[in-house]
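Notes from hallway chat w/ T.B., transcribed later so I don't forget. T.B. wanted the structure written out for a chain they're using in a teaching module, and asked if we could keep both sequence and structure tokens in one place. Agreed to drop them here.
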Amino acid sequence: MSASRTGRTAPPPTHSAGVRPLLLEAAGLTLSGLLAEPAEAPPRATVVAVHGGGMRAGYFDGQAHPDLSLLTLGARLGFTVLALDRPGYGHSAAQAPDGLTLEEQAAVLTAALDAFAQGHTVGRGFMLLAHSYGGKLALTTVARTPGLLALDASGTGHRYGVAPRERHRLRRHLDWERNWGPLGLYPPGTFRAAEHLVAPIPPREAAEVERWPDMFDDLAPRVDLPLRLTFAEHEAWWLHDEPDLADLAARLAKAPVLQIERQPGAGHNISLGRAARGYHLRALAFFEQCLQAHQDTPTRPTRARPAA
């Protein structure tokens, strides 16, 4: 979710050491993004980070504090991390000024993974780490694309806490608070750095927001890979009380591993807050477990939900 409106093609801030920009041709679009690779050995696997609505790939390489970057942390732990500007953002905004639907974006993302694998060592395969609207795209992608290893998503649910049609009635500061939560959750300089990351949501993407609950009900039975969902302590866009999480879990019955967790001391934009490193470490630990399970003999399905 965005903090303000700036151009989708606004230049990103300086990226972290060891992170480099790249362009990737996929399905007729040129996607921009950021890449970090292990320095001393081939990657164990490749983590593809998918940003939310109104943000850009730099969301996963926060510049307000060195602990924020998923890209540098993942590379140090042996993963290649590829953070892509979703179709309609970054370099591809000029090619798709109205954006794409989720199904169209999923087709582009699948093509982007194939294109990346042709020119880079990806290790055991691809794992998706997504935030907010990017979680919708990731779920849509795994429901239609076999062979992905795991998905970790934050800030993505199946039932809205505020109906999309009601959002226009919210005062601007209330909308901002839902995106960020208490100011103290973020290190100094966060919001100045975020000015380079935020972007208006493309019209075709925005038009689908209201349809998400029905879309989720259709795709959830087809999600058949290990899945971890995280809700921030101060998450305000989604319903995530115990009955809501039970209903969410029931709809994802085909996932062989399902973990639904809460991240203390965090708002919706977890990866830009003080809790970012803890969340990223837990996500990468989940990916490690998935790699081990993929290597070993399959075990009994595991499904975990947060304690009340």
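Follow-up for T.B.: Residues 276-295 form the longest helix (20 residues). Might be a good example for the class.
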